[in-house]
Amino acid sequence: MRIELFRRGYKVHEVQAAELLREAFPVAYGEDPEEEVHNILQENRIAAKAVFNGEVVGLVGAIPQYGDTGWELHPLVVRKDYRGKGVGAKLTAFLEEAVAEKGAVTLYLGTDDETGATSLSNTDLFQDPFRKIAEIRNLKGHPYEFYKKMGYSIVGVIPDTNGIGKPDIWMAKSLVR
Ligand SMILES: CC(C)(COP(=O)(O)OP(=O)(O)OC[C@H]1O[C@@H](n2cnc3c(N)ncnc32)[C@H](O)[C@@H]1OP(=O)(O)O)[C@@H](O)C(=O)NCCC(=O)NCCS
Known about the structure:
Aminopeptidase
């Protein structure tokens, strides 16, 4: 398997990337994953792909949101049959190096909990959010734990962004400290 920058122009990989997004995020991209691939491959962004036997089996992207210094990791997906083999970790590390070269100081992301997958769901996060963050538990394999292993810290939550009791969990990693 190799990890490399994902640039526009190779249609076969773009179609495979769209399929990964459709499968992993049916609510967000079920209708038009091709448009999201188009967005991911915009010139001002950075994207990387994991390729095995000529097929895209993983994809990660980053968006500059605060000039060159603050980038948002979005999206990250590994094909189902390749999960748990270190592909996500390699993609993330590759992306971190690539954005650091562009001047990134902080890489951050929002990871939704729409399915009751953590103890931050189904609770009023306007009440005592920092204690609840400190005591977070993973109930159903939520990916925040993957990001923690990659060195990201939970830096906040936005309560109810996906509906009552369905927060977005914000995580960030310093690329310079
Ligand atoms: C989250 C995702 C990208 C992880 O990719 P992956 O290739 O399976 O992850 P890796 O194999 O590199 O895992 C690295 C470490 O994180 C752990 N990990 C991975 N996913 C995890 C999860 N959901 N919960 C807890 N730990 C997890 C692994 O066990 C491994 O730990 P180890 O180093 O102690 O062995 C992948 O599961 C995925 O595509 N999920 C669907 C899309 C998604 O949720 N994307 C993120 C949205 S914010």
